[in-house]
């Protein structure tokens, strides 16, 4: 299992909108948390405020195109989305500026819902979650900082490592998995909204292209070699409490990043 935990791309300004989006999602989850013990009540909430394709087809429920972006299916769903927003949101907010980033985020969420709707416009399965909008953030990051390093936490039974991986590989492979998931999953099936993720990512790239061209396009990449246009963050090494066996020494401490 590989989980992104941070990037090496510090922001020069405080990402107030990213903080506000994180807080809004958490607050909404906490407010409705009592409903999670009652499956019927929870589904009523999701049918009322989640994006339900059939309702849109019948010409109602347009507000859910926004409201669904602040609802989550469970704590893991919320945590995963907020982790990605925390890692990648600050840099895209710096690129766009605060209020334009908020608009960018919401429009990506709309595009994500639009593609998911197009795959099954009569579906009665509600879609909830910020992942479509956050996928747009990932798409923009992929365009601007393809070689920024992202630290991935590797968990494999008893192996624990932190591995720096270029953003183009992390985000590009994530996007490919969404396409493959969408192609292999029936449109009317529940579970992961793969096409919403793909739609949000594509929207993020497309919406960022004019800004990227204004910043120089390929010349911007050439100046920075695909890295952030500033010094990357450095994380100090610390010793691990887990001994490592070696040829010269039976027990040897291993360096870990944090």
UniProtKB/TrEMBL annotation:
Keyword field: Hydrolase, Membrane, Protease, Transmembrane, Transmembrane helix
Residues in Peptidase S54 rhomboid domain copies: 62-210
Membrane topology reported for the UniProt record: Multi-pass membrane protein
Annotated GO biological process: proteolysis
MF annotations from Gene Ontology: serine-type endopeptidase activity
Pfam families in UniProt: Rhomboid
Superkingdom assignment: Bacteria
Localization, UniProt: Membrane
Transmembrane intervals: 16-36, 101-118, 124-145, 152-180, 192-213
Any one GO cellular component localisation term in the record: membrane
PANTHER family in UniProt: RHOMBOID PROTEASE (PTHR43731), RHOMBOID-LIKE PROTEIN 10, CHLOROPLASTIC (PTHR43731:SF26)
Protein name stated in the entry: Rhomboid family intramembrane serine protease
Source species: Roseinatronobacter bogoriensis subsp. barguzinensis
